[in-house]
Design brief:
The protein contains three helices and twelve strands, in the order βββββββαββαβαββ. It has 146 residues and is mainly β. The radius of gyration is 17 Å and the shape is globular.
Amino acid sequence: MFISHISISQNKDFNIIMVLNDKLLVNIEDLKINDEHQNTFQSVGYVPGNLSLNEQLYSQIIGSREKYFLTFTVVEDYKKDIRNYYEIQLENAIFEHYDNKAFFCVIEIFDLKKKKYKKKYKPLSTDKNYNYNLLFPSHSIIKSLK
């Protein structure tokens, strides 16, 4: 007799839109979630409008007080092989409203190499020449303005 055990994990989907320099992000590579200790979790998917986590990762995040970061690379130009790395701190509000299908988050990222954004925002640090805002239906989290 042959007995097989199949483990199927459910995904948790979140209404998230990521925008870079006022354009919808579609050229994303190497998408991961890291915790504040740099432990990496690979079980993340993204298509514009939807961030998907497996249930185990979701449970770990929602039950923790640690900080989590969405990390990814954006391909600016395939021909010239120009890629930029981004790290966005994920706020608990994104995950706490899982059951509310009307809840969403827009992650606005600003590349400060662009003059338009350099005048308005401070870089996150000396090695992170970008800034971002998190926009929710009820509030916004605005990072450092100049």
